[in-house]
């Protein structure tokens, strides 16, 4: 048996609020909308990962979701321009990532990160 995909499900009463964060700001495509569930994604090939943590590093809270982007500073600017509150960072971490924390419209703590260029 092989795991083929991992999907994060976020409970929300207002599904339309997801569009501003996940589609408009982060640029994910809306793949499905049944009225009670909307799925956002990208066709980019990704690795399957599940992380289990006691904290988020440097004593920060453990994020609910981590999203790797190609340009963390652009993502940060887009979040700020859209009015989302930055809760941590941006920070260049000693383990080789640049990141910031932001809450999505449903209160989930999202770690937006990019790996340092070699």
**How does the overall form come out from the CA principal axes?**
globular
Low-confidence stretches: none
* Major sheet description: 4 strands, mixed
N-to-C SSE series? HEEEHEEE
Q: What's the average pLDDT?
A: 92
Number of strand elements? 6
**How large, in whole angstroms, is the Cα Rg?**
15 Å
Helix content: 10-25%
Strand percentage lies at 25-35%
Structural class: alpha+beta
List the strand order in the largest sheet: 3-6-5-4
What gap, in angstroms, lies between the N and C termini? 35 Å
DSSP helical segment count: 2
Architecture overview:
With 118 residues, this protein is of the alpha+beta class. The protein has two helices and six strands. The strands form two sheets. The protein has a four-stranded mixed beta sheet with strand order 3-6-5-4, with helices on one face. Strands 1-2 form a two-stranded antiparallel sheet. β1 and β2 form a beta hairpin. The radius of gyration is 15 Å and the shape is globular. The termini are far apart. The model has no long low-confidence stretch (mean pLDDT 92).
Lay out the secondary structure.
Blueprint: H1 16-25, E1 29-33, E2 38-41, E3 65-68, H2 72-81, E4 86-92, E5 97-103, E6 109-115
Parallel strand pairs: 3-6
Antiparallel strand pairs: 1-2, 4-5, 5-6
Keywords for this entry:
118 residues, alpha+beta, two-stranded antiparallel ribbon
Short structural description:
The chain is built from two helices and six strands, in the order H-E-E-E-H-E-E-E. It is an alpha+beta fold and 118 residues long. Strand 5 (97-103) and strand 6 form a beta hairpin.
